[in-house]
Every structure is written in C-alpha cells, then in structure tokens.
What we know:
The chain is built from 10 helices and 7 strands. By secondary structure, the chain is α/β, with parallel strands linked by helices.
Amino acid sequence: MITQELEREAWDRIAAGYDQFVTPTETWLANEALTRARLTSGERFLDVAAGCGGLSLPAARLGAKVMATDWSPTMIRLLESRARQEKLANLDARVMDCHALDLSDAMFDLTGSQFGVMLVPDQPRALAEMARVTRGGGRVLLIAYGSPEQIEFIHFTVAAVRAVDANFTGIPTEPPPLEFQVSDPEVLRQRLVDVGLTEVCVDTVTERLEFRSGQEMWNWVLNGNPLAEMLVAGLTEEQRRDARVVLDGMLRERSGGSGVAVLTNPVHIGIGTK
C-alpha cells in the first residue's frame, strides 16, 4: 500500500520537471476556468493542490488575493520562486494537505483546483474542505480530465511505448487511476452537489497541447505525474530513447510539416455556488 508520505515524496521528485515542462502549458486552461468562475481583482482565491502554480499564478496576475496550497514542499518552493520573479506580492503559498486544510471556515470568495484535487485518494473529503473554507455565495471550481479514451497525449505515449515493448499494457482500466475518477461529467456534478453546492455547472472544453519533438513531449508526460514513470519503469534506456524517436515521427506526421503538433484533451470545468 502506498502511503501519503510516499506519494508526497513522488511528487517532490518530479517537482522541478513539472515546474519547467508542465506549468507553462496550463495557463490557457487556467484563464478559461477563472473567467467562467468570474474571478475578479481583489477577490480572495484559494488554490488547492496547486502544484507549481498553474492556476494560482494566473489568478494572481488577474489581481486576486491568492493563497496557494500543496502537500509537496518542493512544489511550493518553486511556486514561491515564480511569484517572486513576477513580483506577485498578492500570492502566498503554504504546504498543506487538501484533505485537512489548516484554514478557517468561509475565508475565500473562490476556491479552486486544476488537475490537483482531480486525483487525490479521498476526493469527496477534499471537496468538502474546499466548500468549508468558501464563504456563503462564493464559488468552488474543479478542473479535471474527461474520458481517457479521448485524451490524445495518452494514446500517443502508449503507442510509442508499445512500439518498443509489445508487452506494455498501458494505463490500467479496472480500476482506472484516480486521475479519472470524475472523467464522467455527471459524477463530477454529483460530487459538487454532495458537498452542498448549488447552481452546479459542468462544461467540457478542449485543451490544446503543442509539442515540437518527441523529447519535448516525453519530458512533459514523464514530469506531469508520478504515475507515468511507474508505468514505464521497466523500460531500458535504449527503449526510452527509441520511444522518443517513435514519438518524433508521430508528432511530425500530426504537424503536417508545420513543426508544431497539436494534441487535444477533453477537460471538465465544474463550478458550484456555496
């Protein structure tokens, strides 16, 4: 059984790569979600399971008073570094477990999470905590992947690895990883209703990811989630190199000669009122 401490250490290990390769790709989606959640300058915003700031940094740029929390100390340090570089004095970051937020009730106008609470082991408890710290009339926002069958970066990666290891089984489906526990929008809607939210709306948008090489995509995938490294742990260095070469070819074909391949993913944006 994987303990919370081991999970935290796993995220710490990929934090630098996540900050370098993944966080910059999250901005479009974050701005889209924050616009839908009607975040305005001066509002109090809490980012739960914030990673390196994919959602909280855009919120701070909009002028909100932001607190970002994550259970990975390394990710929080990297987030703080980005905030300092951008001179975002309106962003505070703290190490905190989303299942037990060390915060008072009704502190925030908007509480959100992008690809964070999506994958935690006790999501109902984390959502209840997000609702608890949101004021009456405030909003709760959850951003999560849709159906894995429609997520193109998964299919490209699995196909590339299978090309070098015919025994590679891909992502488990029974049960599916926690990352896809609300891939059904109706499940997401019900979980928001279950924590007492009203006026719940779940919309699905299309996230567009741009990759210019197999190496760039490999870096993005392997540093985006500890699950990715676990799945390819049995590959030799030669197989990993060959998989990146296969990805190069697939991306080149997708780009149509433009040099930039666009892969799409369905993403749910769930919003409810406290």
